[in-house]
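Lab meeting notes turned into a lecture example. A postdoc, R.K., suggested we walk through two folding results consecutively so the class can see how the record format repeats. The first protein's sequence and structure tokens come next.
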Amino acid sequence: MGIWKNITMGLLATLAPALGAMPTMEADAVQAAPLANPSTENAQDLGPANASQTVTASVILHVQNPTALQNYIQQTETPGSAQYHKFLTTSQFAAQFAPSSQTIQQIEQELQQYGLQVVSVSADHLDLQVQGTIQQFDNAFNTVIDLFKANGQVFRAPKKPPQIPVALLTNVLAVVGLDTANAAQSLTVKTPNVSGMPSPKAVLPQGGSTATGTPGSYTVGDTANRYDINPLYQKGITGKGETVGIVTLSSFNPQDAYTYWKGIGLHVSQNRIQMVNVDGGGQMDDGSVETTLDVEQAGGLAPDANVVVYDAPNTDQGFIDAFYQAVSDNQVDSLSVSWGQPEIDYLPQMNQGQSYVDELLAFTQAFMEAAAQGISVYAAAGDSGAYDTARDFPPSQGFSTPLTVDFPASDPFVTAAGGTTVPFSATFSLGKVNITQEQPWSWQYLQNLGYQGLFPIGTGGGVSVIFPRPWYQSGVSGVQNSAANQAFTDSQGVLYGSPFTYNLPSNYAGRNLPDVSMDADPETGYLVYWSAGGGWLAGYGGTSFVAPQLNGITALIDQYVGGRVGFLDPVFYQLMQQNGYGANQPFNDLTTGNNWYWSAVPGYDPASGIGTPNVANLAQAIKSMG
């Protein structure tokens, strides 16, 4: 996980005015464990890191005037407002909402007292790259950095959370980069490898079509057919002049994307992909399929858009820096990410009334800046149904499976991309499946046939117990409060050496997700071209497909409207309430199925969100609002 926090509740005042009331978590711990870094628990301590080794960490600064920033964001998405779609440049954002150059100079001088040097300052004045030896960081932040080994990975990490020097507390929100454990997982799922279920065969489009019509081998052409995108293509709307961005934690081979587009019959520019290696870039590993499909999907739905890939190491620092790099560059018009983790992983210890949320707020600041600059941001809602921790903390190890949601999709300034199963029929060894209506993706229908081990695979969705309900969901029928009697339990003491239970907030009016949904079930899923995995592959899915699809769709909408449309959640909920549903409206309603807990009902629900888009209608509705 690699996520640990060191911030008192008092420090939340920086962003609390913009976020609203934060919940408290009740800790019924068997022992009062000392403050420690959760990523080092249950890991082998290999001893002190090389004290003379030079490393670079990121010092994230507080935004200024957060309430004014949220108000500005709201006005940019309020038709009739003088600020409607009047988005800021990076320099304008820095001047209004970031620490001044004088303040940054004072921070540099304070860090220099410990021998640390600020080697670069992001254009938005929020992300400082600070260099020094491990010993100097130990001294500056009152910690001890060791090497650790867990799950085959060797990483460095502080043995206890660092303490921000008193002189910096006013301006410094978080220090990341001292811990190099993995930070997130890709949200990609393949068809289940269980006895009696056949492996799907790749089918490519035929006869000049870009679609296959074959579940498990769907392409962006099939997505265009299903979600009413073709009328935009017929008007010459192809994403020309727009730029989509991908944030990812694994590198990839750009040629794979070109092969995919050519293989399904799309004609694209041969120099449309730009790679930006953040903090040295990510590795070529199993996560590379995630990056590959993200680019194939976003760039395929918007075939004339440019694509910028922000590729970072899978660490807290890499994940955060990638977003700050993207928003500071302000080059992309829309941005998607298909990596995440359960949001309650960010609250691993609730000791002595403290809540460790500084890194969450660091992400939130980047998303708020994106919104103020008109960059639409999408995140996959998760692939473990309503029980997001089940993939990280399986019950077999003594963990409970409380209702949880995935982050960064749960952030109130991100559009959460949920998943569906589209209609299909199939005969398996244990019986037949006949899905007649599009519904929230849940492999409960396969488990009902008798296949085992599929709980809780399906679309993420539910209620945040960290982020309060945002203004755009206020008063929306179907939006839920958090469920009662939910607790995160480690009955075997795997994490901290002794059993513990943390009771999650009940009836908390938290941010609901997803916001919108599209096909994500691998059984009705997609083709991927991934050379490292063998070339053309079928039966891929996950909400990781939906986030880049919405990214590409936004490029089309931006071109159709004639400029950036920005953070779309407020617009989506307004259109749902004003226009209702139907083939001639922006959205279709899903009213059957569930994500293992939350059920689809008329209107909004935490299983499918608002529903699925009719993209051409949506584009016209947004254009008409201006």
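The second example is placed directly after the first for contrast:
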Amino acid sequence: MKTLTAITVAIGVLTSSLAYGATTSTQFHVDKDARIVDLGLAPQSETRQITLSLAVKNLAAMEAHVASLADPASPNYRKFLTPAQVGSLYGQDAATVAQVVNFLKAQGLTVTKVHANNLLISAQGTNAQLAAVFGSPIHAYQAQGRTYEAPASATAVPANLAGIVKSVHGLDGRPLFRSNVVRQPATGPSAAEAKLVPTRIPTPNATPASLPGEYTVLDLAAKYNVTPLYQAGVTGAGKTIGIATLAGYRQSDAYGYWNALGLPVASNRITDVLVDGGPLPDDGPGSGGAGETTLDVEQSGGVAPGANIRVYLAPNQGNGFLDMFAAAIDENLVDTLSVSWGAAEIYNSAADLEAFHKVFLQAALQGIPVIAASGDAGAFDINRNFPYPDCTTLLSADHPASDTAVLAAGGTTLPHTQVHKYGSITIPTERAWGWDYLRNYITQYYGQTTYYTTYFPVGGGGGVSVDFPRPAYQNALAGVMTSAAAQSLYCKASVVGDPGSGYEDLIDLPPGAPGRNLPDVSLNADPYTGYLVYFEGQWGAGNGGTSFVAPQLNGIFTLIAAGTNSRLGPLHPKLYGAFKTYGYGAKSPFRAITAGTNLYYKSTSTFNPATGLGSLDVTNLARAFGVNL
């Protein structure tokens, strides 16, 4: 296997130790045909922030503690912790933390925060100071129209901190994460096929829309049996939704959406929390990412109109993604937390994945479920960055959805008939979302090239993690799979900036690895049966992606938390336990999805890596969690 030395900045090959020890992966950071230009040494006096992730005292004990919170036989059952209690049990002791702090200060760095979990320390220093401490000069780079800074060669944790500091975040400022939102194509030969202008504008107390692609949270409530909770007076009141995002937005759009639907919401329900200074200037209103944040707030807050909302906004660079979760969980003010941004798990080093995992375990210990979009490239998450046919397809999962402590939100297509320019396509039953059902039509009338450049790979994310082991809640579960054989990513030399010809082997994944399967549950995500979004004062139709499912599930579990008058804690044991109890029977919270694929995995009448446990009957789900209806 070759490393991407032609297109990376001294990253090299990284070894995963979370699951298998022998798994190797490469941390990528460019898209097809992106050329990275080294602009030379970054300004030496420029100040940057970093976050150091410290070792957990006993990771196995921390994992076991999380599991015990959902075990009625355990003395820990539903006894959620504070951040300080997490730090006392699993973080480094005061003397060790002081050792790290004193070392950083001795190197001229300023320590800005020691997190309550005693597992993260934030600091800042100049590029010159950071280079001296971590062993590499900081250069400026340009790619895809954006300038960022990163180490020019390999970095290392100083010997004085070895065994204490597991990873350092923020030295590399590359924008890594993408929002998981998809729209009906509006460019190219199929422009006439797109239906992005709504046929009607929502009005208060109007009946739900009947046209696919123009649904709202009212339709969601009707289709997945949420309405009985509202009829019982459960609106999310007394609970707080958390949204983690990497782009700015306008609060007025969210209020405009809710008001148009006639939803009774408080006029001051949203609180924005800027993390690390907030989103980058080009990720503010008007950017592609702003639409993501807007829909996250609209959907979650529309499903649970009585809840308050805290929106954590961080820059899509360096340590922003980690700090965003840490800030939300350290505050301990939200009852649920969702994110619709992610990246292929094989983009991340083992140390990075472990840093996030510790924070997600902390959230579980505090009773806060974390929900993440599973991705919009079907089973081929990495191919969002390395498209077929210039690169081979590679079965791969999206992170943070692949983390065993995170609920992975998958996608389906609802029954409908698409009326196209040259004919109609009928989807008779809810199926796994994958645009393979469009392949024959698009290739026949627009050609195979259009299909592969616009419609593939698009679908609900799902598959088998090669970085996280199979969790206990998926043991002995029919339909759970191991990683597939013969999974290698080959790309044309030109894709990676190599002047040579032929294909290069960029990554090889292990076969038969018993990894965490995802998604866990799925809801409608196909843009062709998608949703309206009110953005920058205008309505747009034909929006979809698992970006919608994550905040919708956030709102759903906020309703359930309000109905039980408590935090929910780890969701997986309760969900999978309910499935083992009810299956797809009359009182089941789950609806079997037995049709379609996510471009590779088939949806079946068992758990599967296309739609997970299936879609939801939310009223039955609420009852399974103890809500009296």
